[in-house]
Amino acid sequence: MRRIRAGKAGGDDMAVAIDAFTDVRTLLAGARGVLFDFDGPICRLFPEDGSRPIADELRDVIDAFGAGHVLGEAERADKDPHVVLRAVHERGGPALRGLLSDLEGRVTAGELAAAERVAAQEKWHTPYVDALIRTLSGRGARLAVVTNNSPLAAEAHLDRRGLLRYFTTVQGRRPDDPGLMKPHPDVLSRALRELRLGPEDAVMIGDTGTDVRAAARAGVDFIGYGRDERKIDALRRAAAAMVITSYEPLAESEWADGS
Questions:
Q1: From its record, what is one biological process in GO terms (predicted)?
Q2: Is the CATH number 3.40.50.1000 carried by domain 2-43+125-256?
C-alpha cells in the first residue's frame, strides 16, 4: 500500500491510502449497495477530448440565440458541455428555458452517440469493471449508477456490454435542472431511494473531486478510482480517504468466493 499526503480544508493534513485493497474489500464487503459513477469508473465516455465538439456546438447555439452574455471566460474555454449547461441554467433565468431544453437535447444526443461508440471499443472500457460488477452483484450488493451524464447514455452502454441487468437503477442528470448535477447529492439520494437503502449502507466509486463532495454531502462512504496520476492528484486534493488505481485485485477469485 502506498500513502500520500493530502491537503484538507482548514490547513490540516490527512493520509490518503492508495491501493489499500484490504481496506477497500472490507468496505465493499460490508456495503449493501454500491453506487458507480459512469464516466471513468465504468468507461471513458469521451476519450481524447471527445466532449469538446459538443461543448463548442453548445456555445455556437448560445451565441446564435443571442445569449452569449451568460458565458464567462471559463465556460468559453472548457471542454465539458456540462459546464456550459450549468452556466445557462444558473444565469439564464426563465427567458432561456427553451434554449436550455435545446442544449440538454444536444448534450444527451452526444452522450448517447459516445456511449455506443466506446462500448464497441474495448480499450475505452475500464479494465476489470465487468468482473467487479458481477462479483459485487454475486455477493448480494445492490448496484446503481449515479452520473452527471444522461441516464439514457449509461443504460445504452451497459446494455450493449451485457451489464445492465446487474443494476437496480441508473440515475443521471435531470433534464429540467442541471443545477442538481454533482457535487449536489441529488443523484445519490435518488439512487438510494430506489435501492431502499440508507446512506450508511452504501459506498460510492467515483473518479473526481465532484464525486468526493457529492458522496460526502449524501453521507455515503467513498472509494476513489484514479486511473492515472492526474486523477489521483485530483482525488487527493479533494481529500478522498481511499483511492485505487485498478479493479483487478477486487475481481480476484478468492475475494469473489467470499474470503
A1: DNA repair
A2: yes
